[in-house]
Every structure is written in C-alpha cells, then in structure tokens.
Specification:
The protein has five helices and no strands. It has 167 residues and is mostly helical. It is elongated, with a radius of gyration of 19 Å.
Amino acid sequence: MSKAADVLKPRMHAERMDVGLSATDRKELAGGLSEILVDTYRLLIKTHIYHWNVVGPLFHAVHVLTEEQYNALFNATDVIAERVRALGHHAPAGRGVDTAIELDAPGRSAMEMVEDLIVDHEEAVKKMRTVATAADEKGDLVTTDMLTERMTFHEKALWMLRATVAE
C-alpha cells in the first residue's frame, strides 16, 4: 500500500494516549458515556414527538418547554459524543445501538406526556450520577464536570416539568 493511502486509513490512538487515565478506565467511562448518549437521543426524540403532538389546556406551556428541552438535548449529544472521542473511543453508531422508542403520543394527554418525560429525566440523572461518581473516583475531572452540567440540566428540567403538572 502506498504511503498516501496508509495515511488515510482510520486508526484509533487510544492505545498511545497518556492523559493520566488508564486505558481500562477510559474504556469503562467511554462505555458509560455511550449509554448516556443513546439515552439522550431517545429522550430527545421522545421530547420532540411530544412537542409536536401535545394538546389540551397545557398545550402552550408543554409545547414551549419541550422545544427548549429538545434543543438542549440535541446540543448535549454533541458534547457527550465528543467526550467519548476525547477518551479515545468511537461514539456509538450503527448496529447494536437501540434508539427505538415506543410511545402512543397522539393518544396521550399532556399530563401523561409530562409524567413520562419526568421518569426519563430521573433515569438520566441516576445513570449520570453513577458514571460521574466513577469518573471522579478515577480522576477524570473533565467527565465529572461535563456530567455535573448535564445533571444540572436534567434536574432543572424535572423541576419545570413537575411544576407544569402540579395541582
């Protein structure tokens, strides 16, 4: 193979990285972040679908809130994927990545949609807290900081969603 063609071959540089984290730790954290990334995509899609299909007395509040949230979730996917790459691994793609969502948005009330989103945001916070704690224990302050910021978003989203459906 020519030298020019050899330069164009994709390579992972994870084996040669020396950023103060072991290859095992980087792989474990990239795996946790990859799960978070897939879950973020699922929540993004669900939030967007609910945004389109919400009806009833809470229409405007939920429509506006979900638009803010799906835009933030879309931006978060890039941040999370870039962290996986910075750890020397590929962001999840293709086969083996299940982003399937089963929901009956047109048949759900605004209250049911919001309650469903609350469950997903709570799950996101719990998973992020687990990975952030592991990152902190391994000395990966960048991942810890990024996940702290992501948890802050989700906890604020929870506050707003709960306030929207409070009686």
